Amino acid sequence: MDPTPWRRGRLLLAALATAALGAIxxxxxxxxxxxxxxxxxxxxxxxxxxxxxxxTRMVGERTSNRIRMRTFHSAQLxxxxxxxxxxxxxxxxxxxxNLSPFNNLAPxxxxxxxxxxxxxxxxxxxxxxxxxxxAIAQDLERIGIIALxxxxxxxxxxxxxxxxxxxxxxxxxxxxxxxxxxxxxxMRALGANPTPLPFGEVFTSLxxxxxxxxxxxxxxxxxxxxxxxxxxxxxxEHSNVPEVLAVSAQRWRRLNDQxxxxxxxxxxxxxxxxxxxxxxxxxxxxxxxxxxxxxVIEISDRAPWSALMEPVYAKYAADARLAALVRQIRExx
Length: 333
Ligand code: BDP
Known about the structure:
This protein has 333 residues and is of the alpha/beta class. The protein has two domains: 32-153 and 242-285, 3-Layer(aba) Sandwich (D-Maltodextrin-Binding Protein, domain 2), CATH 3.40.190.170; 156-240 and 289-330, Bacterial extracellular solute-binding protein, family 7 (D-Maltodextrin-Binding Protein, domain 2). It has helices at residues 5-23, 47-62, 80-89, 108-113, 121-128, 131-142, 167-170, 181-189, 202-208, 218-223, 249-252, 257-291, 303-306, 310-316, 320-331, and strands at 34-39, 67-72, 94-98, 145-151, 156-160, 174-177, 193-196, 213-216, 232-239, 243-248, 295-297. The strands form three sheets. It has a five-stranded mixed sheet with strand order 2-1-3-10-4. Strands 8-5-9-11 form a four-stranded mixed sheet. Helix 2 runs antiparallel to helix 12. Beta-D-glucopyranuronic acid is lined by residues 41, 80, 97-98, 153, 178, 199, 216-217, 220, 243. It comes from Neoroseomonas soli. This is TRAP transporter substrate-binding protein. Residues 1-28 form the signal peptide. GO terms for molecular function: carbohydrate binding. Keywords: Signal.
């Protein structure tokens, strides 16, 4: 049966309203609230957890809870490599990752992982908030991951069950690395025996003697309690690889422009919060491990270490695009 004239009028009005709202990027029917699941490898009180919780709070407020995000801290949703796969499939919606586990998937992430590339944290931030970040975001988008902002991860140094002062001391030692070819070659170039393992397996592997050491920044060394089993921390500061706060492209595709802007702004603001918390936590973690009696071996001369890194640059920064990015980063002042 034909709609009555008044019903026809109502239908027309509804259609017009839908079209008008559609034009400004909103849908007529109140959109059903979306529930997003977030992955975090660290505990909630780690600077990255603090950043992520600030991000999800801001997104909730600014979308009137249309996008409700919940972060599962402490790797509750699995280890890092699985989490990356899940982000690509869209079964995890957002996450914070270190960039090293992307080394084999997104070539430009190798550049910011390169040993002894950055002069200091300020230099790293300039690169990742600038040309390096732009290039990496493009690479990540190709594998289904949308980078929204960049988190700090300090400098990574070696920690071991026996004292290490020179590369010669490392010879033959089994050192855990993240799953990345660059890291395997880097550790080999230092004379060690690289052992790729998930983060969550490092403590027991140190305890059982499967490995003799690992490498990480102060906050990770402390928060994981690795310092209880690997009692020597040598300040090699060999890599300043940063981290990304990212969203699955599966989700991103279904957001309107206004929602995307809200997420981008909240992510950037969360990075400011994370970086502040990071600087503070670095100091606190260092104090905590010193109080626990760890031997800190200060490496003041890094030249013998960086001299061994030539093959790593030759292999991972040889390609013209990557070499240009390295040059661009070095020229940042
Ligand atoms: C920490 C990073 C984390 C990595 C971990 C590792 O924040 O994302 O998974 O190192 O070494 O510093 O696996």
